Amino acid sequence: MSLVLISHSRTLGEGLRDMVAQVAGPDVRVAVAAGTEDGRLGTSAPLIVDAIRSALADGPAGPTDGVLVLLDLGSAALSLEIALEDLTELERSRVRVSEAPLVEGAVLAGVQASLGATLDATFAAATEAATMSKLPRA
After folding, report:
1. Which domain holds residue 96?
2. What is the CATH number of the domain that holds 98?
């Protein structure tokens, strides 16, 4: 099980990857497609394709169950759509895209993936992040 984090900011994407790695451990691969090729804010379809293919590749623990993609803002979805068109049908069949909030969804997905959850279960965990309360309720 692998994650791909798409963000307009390279700093945000790499920092979130570090957070997820800390809670998920070394067995969960986290790829980042953040910022543009020249370091500006934005998203890049080619960087997203590279991140997804990297996440799909067999790693030291063997083949991945699939890839869960999380993104920061709606406009990142446009770059993601273009990137998905560049993937083969087989590659696309192993990718799920979550509408979960990026930070909370990535952390919950990382924890689930570290427990050996399937792609569908990891997707469901990330989706639950949309309803999480950030503050204790009285």
Report:
1. 2-131
2. 3.40.50.510
φ and ψ at 5, to 5 degrees?
-105, 125
Task: Give the Cα-Cα-Cα angle 28, 33, 39 (nearest 5 degrees).
Answer: 140
- Is 97 within the bounds of a domain? yes
Q: Which of 8, 17, 29, 94 is catalytic?
A: 8
84 is catalytic: no
Asked if residue 94 is part of any domain, the answer here is yes
Tokens of 133: 């309360």
Residue 35: which of 9, 12, 4 has the closest Cα?
A: 9
How far, in Å, CA of 46 to CA of 115, rounded? 31
Residue range 105-131, pLDDT digits in tens:
999 999 999 999 999 999 999 999 989
pTM for this predicted structure: 0.93
Token reading at 18: 């570090």
- The count of structural domains within the chain is 1
